[in-house]
Amino acid sequence: MKIKDYLDQDQIKYFTAKSDIQASLVLIVNWLGVFALFTMVTIWTSPVTIILAIILLAGRMLGLSILMHECGHRTFFNSPKLNHFVGQWLCAAPTFNDLDAFANEHKVHHQKVGTADDPNLENYRTYPVEKASFRRKMARDITGRTGIKLITFIIRSASGVVDITKRELAIPALKILWAQLLLAVVLGLLFAPWMYLVWLVTQMTSFMVVVRIRQVAEHGAVPELFHDDPRESTRTTIPLWWERILIAPNSVNYHVEHHFMSSVPCYKLKELHELLKNKGAYENMYIPQSYGEVVRGMTKSAELTPS
User: Fold this and answer.
1) Residue percentage of the chain with pLDDT more than 70
2) Which residues contact 149 (CB under 8 A, 6 or more apart)?
3) What is the DSSP string of 266-281?
4) What is the DSSP string of 73-106?
């Protein structure tokens, strides 16, 4: 799958052009969603609204993570400095991540995807797995064991217990923790001090679930994992409306398109998908019509047939 086979120079120029207005709107909508959920819990405080917020906040956290990804590619805003500031402080750090560490590893992922040298390979190479194995993974995520492991590592790193200076992709833990402290103060001033616990519990539970589903959906149990054509080693999924909110914000579901041309901003991926589809690029290619369909394929060796 080569760019020149489907796009001319004018189309390449159009799809790779960035818009500060579109990027700003996407960023604002993501954060408005976060604060709308905290407002809901503040006005109608109850176990039901708190649980609902923890579920829905996972999608908003994933949305911010996707925007961190965009800024790491420098495809979100026109200015590299703005990409870095927004990606680090408004997207990465609030979700316990770091833009530079992510971008360095993700660059290698794009260079090595479809090979045994892909640094993210361990996230999806074993799929499909037995249903019992998948249930155990989900149980670790939803009960907080996966999230606690991550946060414990960050705290230990910040305290010097873990020598992160020797790690090639070290997480600058202190920067993350300071950002979390600032977020806790902001939530305390705008809503109530205990609201940060809702954010933290979301990070450790439901967010881990949606991140895992998103990871395995992108490259797990694909037709041919070790292949240089993204139509073979990568998956695009067409989500249901509620999946778009929870699992596929900011067009992250168009992953074949992203690997086809990673310089395309997320707000143009759907349009690129439609163009490639009309040009016959997806003929004989399996495109799941929901993430439920993808998850079912993660837990059995189902034969993939063209959609």
Assistant:
1) 93
2) none
3) GGGHHHHHHHHHHTTT
4) HT-SSS-HHHHHHIIIIIIIGGGT--HHHHHHHH
